[in-house]
Amino acid sequence: METTLAFAVHVTQQASALLMDYFKQKRLAYSLKLDQTLVTDADLAADKLISDAIHARYPEDVIISEELHPQNSSYPDNPDHAVWIVDPLDGSTNFRQGLHTWGVLLTRLINGFPQESVMHFPLLEETYMCQRGQGAFLNGNPIRVLQPDLDDHSSFFSCCSRTHRHYQVRVPYKTRILGSTGFSLCCVARGSAILGFDATPKIWDIAGGWLLIEEAGGIIDTIDGSQPFPLQPGINYALRSFPVLAAPTTELIALARKQITSLQATIPRPSTTPIE
């Protein structure tokens, strides 16, 4: 029988193939969720494919996904069951606009912590995978964060489009907005980005990247001290955001905390947040 990681790779590839059929359509119709993020029929179809596959293979496991299971987005009271965190289409706006930076994120948690993860970006032909204690890999090859050269002015800072609306940023690197939280964290893990920050990601945006960064030897944390892991019973994760910060070293994380400071005490309500 195939391993859980091999199963996750297979399922993300199946979902990606389904998404490619939708990607070929021009100006795919969309709607807005309560938090004003975008959802298309492609998101829903991929989420159903993934959820059906998990239920068939692991009927006792719990699923928390962005689209099909927001009503079940709380960690179960019985933590003995493994939990799958599913983002069927990370980078929905990129996807709808014909840009290539989008992917399928799938992470399995044990005792509330990410245990193994696959993040597949089909049009980039990049598959990131990791298991706790086993390292991080890109297309089967090991990856590690790079020790930063703080004087290298070609280094880039990856952030989301909300960053400069909610934070004062004095990071001295080139800024890139990639439109996918998962891919942004992958860029830190592989040594392409010196620093990554996302202001309002949900648990399904960060679960896989969190483990990938750790397994690649990097540091990942939240800028406000909130801790996404271990998952806690009774918390509706559809309503929780975790401003996540990733870097190669603890020193760079500490420096970034001084360079990225909140413009206000609270983030505006989701209904006023522009589409990512």
Structure description:
The protein contains 7 helices and 16 strands. By secondary structure, the protein is α+β, with helices and mostly antiparallel strands. It folds into 2 domains: 4-143, Fructose-1,6-Bisphosphatase, Chain A, domain 1, CATH 3.30.540; 156-272, 3-Layer(aba) Sandwich (D-Maltodextrin-Binding Protein, domain 2), CATH 3.40.190.80. The protein has a 7-stranded mixed β-sheet, with helices on both faces. Strands 12-10-13-15-14 form a 5-stranded mixed β-sheet, sandwiched between helices. Strand 6 and strand 7 (126-131) form a beta hairpin. Helix 1 packs antiparallel against helix 2 and helix 5 packs parallel to helix 6. The radius of gyration is 17 Å and the shape is globular. The N and C termini lie far apart (39 Å).
User: Uncertain segments of ≥5 residues (pLDDT<50)?
Assistant: 265-276
- The count of helical stretches stands at 7
Largest sheet: 7 strands, mixed
Class from secondary-structure proportions = alpha+beta
The chain-level mean pLDDT equals 88
Helical proportion?
A: 25-40%
Number of strands: 16
